[in-house]
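Handout, page 2. Input:
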Amino acid sequence: MKSPELSIVMPCLNEVETLSICIKKAQNFLTEQQIEGEIIIADNGSTDGSVELAQSQGVRVIQIKEKGYGNALKGGIAAAKGKYILMGDSDDSYDFYNLSPFIDRLKAGYDLVMGNRFSGGIEKGAMPFLHRYLGNPVLSFLGRLFYNINVRDFHCGLRAFRKDAYQKMRLSSPGMEFASEMVVKASLMDLKITEVPTTLSPDGRSRSPHLNTWRDGWRHLRFLLGFSPKWIYLYPGIGMMLLGGVLSILLVMSRLQVGGINFDVQTLLYTCLLVLIGFQFFAFYFLAIVYANAKGLLPPKDQIVRILHYFNLEKGLLIGIMLIGVGVLLFLWAFNVWRGVDFGALNPLESLRITIPSVTFLVLGIQMMIYSFFWHILKLR
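Output:
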């Protein structure tokens, strides 16, 4: 038997009301476009007769024991034999009869073709208000910002991709965040991504959808943040260290007056704390990169690889010792000032301008040494 060119995979969990029409539309598409294809129902434990209905229509049914949208799709895609894979929900909200734009883009050389419901048309009642005007736009915006992906509809459930490209992504999400992971991993792997307009209709089910607005929205957001260490660690860390460092230098030199407000050593304590917190963010960025690369979660980037090769335990310890040395020198300076008044009472406004930076450098040095040892452990094989 000739291998199929296209595999259409539909996740299913109690979709007996809409499954048949989805299968018929997909079958008509394959027949009319003369595409050698197969339809796979990735069943996730249906008890309403969905499995028997699908089998009666001559399509393959793959039983997936592990619960979850992502698990169902991973199982169905793994069983697919086609060069190209198209996935879409089996609730009759997507039009399986008009799939040509997806296939045409794949044949043109793209690795992942996303549907865009906002450009194709969303029928009245097809998407909840919060999803349409808050959830999808905000999460899609963050996805574009974090990963520089020109995709306007991150969470469209109708999409197509090359199977060999899919295998490079090594997707692992078990739930609804599988949709975000696919786009993010495709971008990180430098795969070719594009969008085509598609429509969204009200689903044909009488029951409520499986999607939970707040729970699944948070899972998508959590994934976007977790796979973007630059935005969660690096940029905030650099910003806090720069802001805290500049303000600390100014406050060490003298009191600051802005309008009618005076800032003195009490503020210096908080600006130095900002430096310490910023350094922790900065250090965790590189620790996260090392861990993610070791686990194969993120592909290595050239500039990061150069840093990983250059930096080692000994260099980190040396930097830590130098920072501690600065802290000790400031401590000796403060001690000498104290000795100058025969170890009596000090003017706190003057003495704290030395002791607070001293403590800051000591803590920075100790942190640098601790993070260097942890860095070394993460790099061990």
